[in-house]
Amino acid sequence: MKQRRRKGLIDNYMVEFIVTDLGRGEPVGFYSAPLKQIARVIHPDPTLNDFMYEMSWMNLSKMNSRECQSDVPENCGKIRCAVLISAREVKDSKQDSSNNKPGFIQISPTKEGPWTSVRLNYAAPAACWRLGCDVIASEVTVKDGNRYVSIRSLVSITNNSEFDHNMVGTEEFFELEKYSPSLGWISCSPNFTVSSLPKQWPSAGEYQGISNIELPEGWDWIDDWHVDKTSTGTDDGWIYAPDIGHINWPESARLTDPENSARQRRWIRHRQYMPLNEKDQILIGLHKPGSGIPLPLSGLTQPYILEFRPKNDNEQNEYSWSVVLEKHRLNDFSLELENSTEICLSMLTESDGLLYCSQTSGCSLNNKKGLWFCLSTEASEIGKDLHSNPIHDWNLKIYSPLSVTNFLPLAAEYAVNDQLPTEETVPCFKDTIVPGETVNIYNADPRDPLYLSVLPQGGWQQLHGPAPILHSSKIPSKMLTLENSFSGRIVQVIVEENHDKKHLIARVIRISVPYWVASARCPPLIYKFIDIHLGFSASISQPGKEQFGPAKDLTPLGDMDGSIDLHAYDTEGNCFRIFVSSKPSPYSSVPTKVISIRPFMTSTNRIGQNIYLKFNAGDQPKILSASDSIVSFTYCEGEQEILQVMSQTEY
């Protein structure tokens, strides 16, 4: 990239480079210096320019040192680059002292050109430009008043799954030492050779060695051996214990104690899978969940095939590279089966695909060892070429083929099986899902029959066994019947299975109910629904002594602002007035209504001393304490009026 600036402005500018890991979307280091310190002048004769000579290595500092402004920043790498200024601009600056001439950005695949001017388009999410014989995209963002221009290829991948798509392993070795009063700390670690240690580490006389771990076929080291300081939270990684037998990694003591005569620390080294035919493959790197990364331009001009493999830090299972099981062309929200079973990056079409990664090592909870993923290929037009053909910006999205969302007001245990469950059947998925949460399921083949079990907390059991949700010969269940083991009450739960409008292969399962009752700031109440049109009554909770008041028709709750008044009673004739209204549930994607139960009237004491209240002349006095806020009372039914009294006063 080349940026033209007037030399008269060199003294007033700083240049800052920020290196960002696009897979994680996080900056890893920066370099900052005055423009006049690193700028170089381009000679008018291109043959006299030695660009390799002009480029120099610059040390990158960690991003945290950018905020704390440390005098000695900690280095985290290097970048080789050059800041070049046109000699013609230098000549023009001597004749014109104006400081308001705007600059512009030019890009080229080679130093000889051709150069393309990149203009900043804030209105469009992306714009296309020529880079030699290829077409690329640029995006402009503004953050903290600074403008950032991102130049990338026309194909990017978004990881919407919970897995890293890469294969990185960790080798470890535990160094063990014991203390001798005459010799100091003595190594007890077998085969600890310093031949594999960095040169800046202690000499061979200080260690007995670390074993040269042999790499599996197709793997390569990506860093050096280093001490694991994260697990212990110490600067040197040591943990201490009275003797070797009492060392418990990493829970043992972090600090030295006079009685501790043994210590241990962990050395780690990371390895990455490198295929033997590297020339035929381009490794993109680790792709974190939720992140997007553009693909290299070289992978789009040749017939490269996209493959990925999942990785989860919480498990030791390893998986193979993905294979395409099904691929459907997207045509006006319908699917047409394609003959191609590969994702060719140079010949992309809008499509949805089902991909599978088989498990190569580790243990599996069920008999199907592998993971399934959906890959959606979407295109957006960002320009046209010389022949008025559209130029597309492609985005490949990886996500789960099946998801379950709990729209119930209770946490519930869900299980998905690929066959009718028995005592020996292990479900594909089993977990407790809190209200409003969505879980993604990867270890179930969406082409097979699948059955769903739902057990909400609070003593609920599912009647009639698991219900089919995906089945080629059975109609998927629309309702689940649940029974409460405490009250015997039976309710029906809605099971909605549909497709996402953009992702037509993936299945989305939503669990909801037509309505639920939410009560707040009321005494314990027992509710009873009566089948008139739909009626409702309530009683103050007294087990076995319910005294329900008159039932009220719930039809007014169908209106936006509809409400009803309700009276609940107890066996002593006390009354509690209730305000009943309805509102949409907090989950906008389901039509559930919430019947809201609130006291018709609440009281708050802001006087600073206790108050006695009566709601009519025949009512018993009630204390509204000085600290009470938004409280409600039962009262003796009668002509409604509020009587209050404080100490040494009358009602």
TrEMBL record:
Q: Which residue windows are coiled coil?
A: none
Query: GO CC terms for this protein?
Result: bounding membrane of organelle; cytoplasm
**Any Pfam family the entry gives:** Pex24p
Q: Superkingdom of this entry's organism? A: Eukaryota
Sequence ranges assigned to domain TECPR1-like DysF in this UniProt record: 173-269
Quote the InterPro entries the UniProt record gives: TECPR1-like_DysF, VPS13, VPS13_VAB
Question: What range(s) does the Vacuolar protein sorting-associated protein 13 VPS13 adaptor binding domain occupy?
Answer: 373-517
Q: Which GO terms describe its biological process?
A: protein retention in Golgi apparatus; protein targeting to vacuole
Name of the protein in question: Peroxin/Ferlin domain-containing protein
Organism of origin: Dioscorea zingiberensis
